[in-house]
Amino acid sequence: MRKCTLFLLLLICFVKANAQEFVTTEVTKKNVLIEEFTGKKCVNCPTGHIETKAIEEAYPGKVWSINIHGGFYSSLEYPNLNTPISDSLGTYFSPNQFPSSLINREDGKLYPNTRWRDVTDEQIQQTAVCNLAGQVAINPLTRVATVTVEIYYTSNSSSDKNYLNVFMLQDSILGDQTGASSNPEQMVGDQYCHMHVLRSNVTPFWGDAITTTTAGSLVTKTYE
Fold first, then answer.
1. Nearest-CA neighbor of 186 among 63, 67, 37, 9?
2. CA atoms of 70 and 85, how far apart (whole Å)
3. pLDDT in tens, 108-131
4. How many Cβ atoms sit within 10 Å of the Cβ of residue 145?
5. Distance between CA 207 and CA 193 in Å, rounded?
6. Cis (ω within 30 of 0) for the bond into 79?
């Protein structure tokens, strides 16, 4: 079974002068995004999938992950999990080992899976500069998804320009995976169930620039 999910990635943030509808205005701690560079031909990558799942389960509703397929270990054979955005991210960040991950894109640094939990623990204790919430409505006849994002700044950002990215992910893609036996929970018969695979970017590569980044600012963005 396949299902498409829209994933909202807070790289940092955004404004429109109206009252918020669903984003909280309370001061909160950071959520965490793990962007995992992986591939179907990477024998060690299933252990990375185990690690990200364990971290997500340790912080339910606070941690999300994206699997970025591209580069040497990601074959183009069916099912082809490579996309232009995954190739572009791989080219820019240039991971020299697989799996490796960005954790909230902190300084653009890549971490091996032995460090993901520690860095997540550090990030999740920090106070967020702003809050983000999103809603998605899908028209089943036109197959158009309308994504509404609200961002509220609870304090001043250290930068006068922040960015918002909206990504589309796909779950439950059955296919091959080298080293799949090390992660039996994701096996369906003799196939591997690939999860939260990066499929497309709704916003530009670096996201939409936000130029009002002071405390009390509210931003509303809509995408189709």
1. 67
2. 9
3. 899 999 999 999 999 999 999 999
4. 15
5. 29
6. yes
pLDDT value at 101 more than 50: yes
**pTM here?**
0.87
In terms of Cβ atoms closer than 10 Å to its own Cβ (0-12, 13-18, 19+), residue 209 is exposed
Q: How far apart are CA 18 and CA 27, in angstroms?
A: 19
pLDDT in tens, 71-93: 889 989 999 999 999 999 999 99
- Distance separating alpha carbons of residues 204 and 182, to the nearest angstrom: 36
Mean pLDDT of 27-43: 96
Phi and psi at 162, nearest 5°, equal: -115, 175
Tell me the C-alpha to C-alpha distance, in Å, between residue 13 and each of 46, 79, 158.
Answer: 32, 34, 12
Q: How far apart are CA 98 and CA 113, in angstroms?
A: 9
